[in-house]
Design a protein that fits this description.
By secondary structure, the protein is of the alpha/beta class. Helices cover about 35% and strands about 25% of the residues. The strands form four sheets. Strands 3, 4, 5, 6, 11, 12, 13 and 14 form an eight-stranded mixed β-sheet that branches. The chain has a two-stranded antiparallel ribbon with strand order 1-2. Strands 7-10 form a two-stranded parallel sheet. A hairpin with a 2-residue loop joins β8 and β9. α1 packs across α2 and α1 packs across α4. The longest helix is centred in the first third of the chain and has 26 residues. The chain starts with 8 loop residues before the first helix and ends in a 6-residue tail after the last strand.
Length: about 325
């Protein structure tokens, strides 16, 4: 079959897909480490070659035209096929090699997984890892990741999942905030405090706080004058700066607590956990490189003790 595209076409298709996914030329440029002008020029050349506009451009973002939506579907199919073919050849080797795509929460990646990567790279120098970081894990039908780390197992009903770690929901505030604020001795006292709020993008109400009261998990509504949309680390920094009381995973605050920047409060009621699983499709588990990554993290992250009695799967709205 004759080829109707030049040697640069593959890079152009990858660039087009990234711009379509992000709905922004500037964000695509940042992700690919090129200039926005280069993205715009490349897309314009592609549109000229195809004889059809692929994007509707506005001052704030871009969106696909009908032709662009159809072209994106074809491009994803073609790129996935090339990716699968390359990795199928890599899987024939005895030494794990090739690229894997891993999706996991931002905070867990920064503080738990990334510190382990030098050891992983020394053990498996021929494996490349693409990390996709996000607050919310995509659903099974919409992800192109090989591996997902999450506590939201209801999003991946057909995948094989192994529990590897857990994090406790704790409540923290800075010493300066607590000096000036009303007493905080019971969950009911939270009514008198500025509670830093976490939101999902499409929700108007903040996420409620899971507490254990009378041995039952209760999801408590709180109030505050600062909200953060799908960015746990922003909430952390605002708490350290003395802006209010925050609920976050214990591993996020551990260093700040040891340095005296944060104080844990309401400890008897904060015994709810997120159990983290590492998941992949059943067929993917046969791949040496994917199996190597899963086995490595399972080995490195598994806690010494038992998993907690109380846990929640997804944030409660």
């Amino acid at each position: 079959m004759p080829r109707h595209f030049d040697d640069l076409m593959l890079g152009t298709l990858e660039l087009f897909c990234r711009a379509a996914e992000l709905q922004s030329f500037s964000q695509a440029a940042q992700a690919l480490n090129i200039s926005p002008a280069a993205v715009s020029k490349t897309i314009a050349r592609l549109e000229q070659k195809l004889g059809s506009p692929l994007f509707v451009r506005t001052t704030r973002h871009v969106r696909l035209t009908e032709a662009g939506e159809q072209y994106l579907s074809y491009c994803r199919t073609a790129l996935d096929a090339m990716y699968d073919a390359e990795n199928a050849l890599q899987d024939m080797k005895t030494i794990p090699a090739g690229k894997i795509r891993v999706c996991l929460p931002n905070d867990y990646a920064y503080l738990k997984v990334f510190p382990l990567m030098p050891k992983f790279r020394r053990r498996y120098p021929q494996i490349e890892v693409d990390f996709h970081l996000r607050f919310r894990i995509p659903r099974q039908e919409s992800t192109d990741s090989d591996i997902v780390m999450t506590s939201w197992l209801n999003y991946l009903p057909d995948w094989i999942a192994t529990p590897v770690d857990f994090a406790m929901f704790r409540i923290y505030a800075s010493p300066d905030y607590l000096k000036k604020a009303p007493p905080l001795n019971t969950p009911d006292d939270l009514r008198h405090h500025n509670c830093l709020q976490m939101h999902l993008q499409e929700q108007t109400r903040p996420l409620r706080w899971p507490l254990v009261i009378n041995n039952d998990v209760v999801h408590l509504s709180t109030q505050g004058d600062m909200a953060f949309y799908e960015d746990v680390m922003a909430e952390y920094y605002m708490a350290v700066s003395g802006n209010g009381v925050a609920m976050m995973h214990d591993f996020i605050a551990r260093k700040a607590v040891s340095e005296g920047l944060l104080v844990q409060v309401l400890e008897p009621w904060t015994t709810v956990s997120h159990i983290y699983h590492i998941a992949c499709p059943a067929e993917a588990r046969k791949s040496p490189r994917i199996r190597a990554f899963i086995d490595f993290l399972t080995e490195e992250l598994r806690p010494a003790g038992a998993f907690p009695e109380h846990s929640v799967i997804v944030p409660v709205r």
